[in-house]
Amino acid sequence: MPTCAEPTALTAELTAHLHAAAAHGRHSSCRGSVSTQIPALAAVPATKFAMAVATVDGTLIHTGDSTEAFSIQSLSKLFALCVLLQHDPGAWLDVGWGPTNAGYGSVADLERNQGRPANPFVNPGAIVVTDRLITHTGDPVSATSALLQRADPDGVVSCDTDVAISEARTGHRNSAIAHVLAEHGLLNNPIEQVLHQYFAQCAITATVQTLAKATLFLADRGGGNPPLNRPLDEATVRRVNAVLLTSGMYGAAGDIAYRIGLPAKSGIGGGVLAVMPARGTVCVWSPPLDDDGNSAGGVAAIEEFARLAGWSVF
Predict the structure, then answer these.
(1) pLDDT for res 283
(2) For 126, which of 77, 267, 274, 293 could close a Cys bridge (C-beta 3.0–4.6 Å)?
């Protein structure tokens, strides 16, 4: 059953929206299929479903398998980027900020741009982020996990080593991307070290509750009530949200902006999160993916919640 910070009328309304959106998401999940790209994730039951909504006033509501941690995969790219921007606000020059229709794992797109990634959410950009985090922190996985843990001290954030090993064994395209980046002089650390950290970063596990809480600083425009511990300044938050809107859902970003109107990020593990500036965040976990590689149930649930709650940046 959903829980919340305090039983206000607004909380009751959001809870009703959460239930309706979750039901819609569960129904829509049958349109997708669990990815077999990473063998260790292929066995995750397609029926798993969790949803959480966090607001800047401290409310948290959730339903389904919301206490179960899952492999966040490319959702980690968002948090790794934010950690890097804490250390180097000018990191955008290395990873880019423009949208692309070439796909998140395109080597050809990387070559066309002389090795410079289009944005931090495609795999080339995320690998560069990991490389820079090795330089700044020595341990990108721990640094990224720490950002999540600070947002939810009672949550359990860890790395699934089985998933990381599975990714390493099948991550041939990411290996190719790393070699192209190195050829163009865009990696500062050894390829093997960068890939090891990147696969482990993607194998971080957390619940939808932790992820919704950890993303709240991107929705915060006034310090929150209670005040939120914001790791980034307001200008950087605006830039991150802008790139989330244009690139967080890869080739489907335009469709998501049209249908939902929120900055959003997806992961191959079935996680999707979205940000409503000045209001809050929503995170869904539903493993079956659609043809674009995004969670079929997750996108549907967030679309329905945004419609019911009136959440849109437009």
Answers:
(1) 98
(2) 77
Residue 1 inside a domain? The answer is no
Q: What is the CATH number of the domain that holds 212?
A: 3.40.710.10
pLDDT at 2 (0 to 100): 45
In a domain, 3, yes or no: no
Instruction: Determine contact, residues 178/107, Cβ cutoff 8 Å.
Output: no
Contact of 223 with 233, CB cutoff 8 Å: no
Tell me whether residue 274 is in a domain: yes
Residues 56-114 have pLDDT tens digits of 999 999 999 999 999 999 999 999 999 999 999 999 999 999 998 887 888 888 888 88
Domain containing 25 equals 9-309
Strand order in the sheet with 280-285: 60-64, 50-55, 280-285, 271-276, 264-266
